[in-house]
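Appendix B. One record, verbatim.
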Amino acid sequence: MSRIGKKPVAVPDGVKVEIAGSEFKVSGPKGELSWELPERISARYDADAKLIQVERVGDEKQARALHGTSRALLANMIHGVNQGYERRLLVYGTGYSCNLKGDFLCLNVGFVGRGSKNKPQFEVPVPDGLEVVVETPAARGDLEPAKFLVRGCDKQLVGQFAAEVRRIRPPEPYKGKGIRYDDERVRRKQGKAFASGAA
């Protein structure tokens, strides 16, 4: 038996759970989510104890593999609609900036020949269910980055959008310019050393 899969999921106050067949729905202060449970996996909700128990049918390899995964996904959904998820990204580089224009995240990240003074180099559409908050719109030098926050109740959607934005300009190893996560450590390389006084 999966040690994670057999652990019940606590449902906090203010979160509503609905299970209809294989469809799992949950709603709370931050939004609502739904997920189709895989075959051989079922969920029971005890409204009195406010606990969700995830169970599997059979002991096949696939059922055992999905047992703990399904429990973790349901726990993530409960946490998401109750407290939400967020990912902060930093934009390092002189002249680099990030702004919001309607439902688009606008980025200027040093690509020559793209964009203009009034037009950003990249306009990334913000998916439904996500909120982007610009905390610092422009970077100052290579030490003070521009900052923005991605928020949402769907952990997978928050992480996917943050990864797609970071992929536009990953941090380079010499000066560290680019887009990185707030808790990301960029391994730096030393630049070329030129010998002085060479004939």
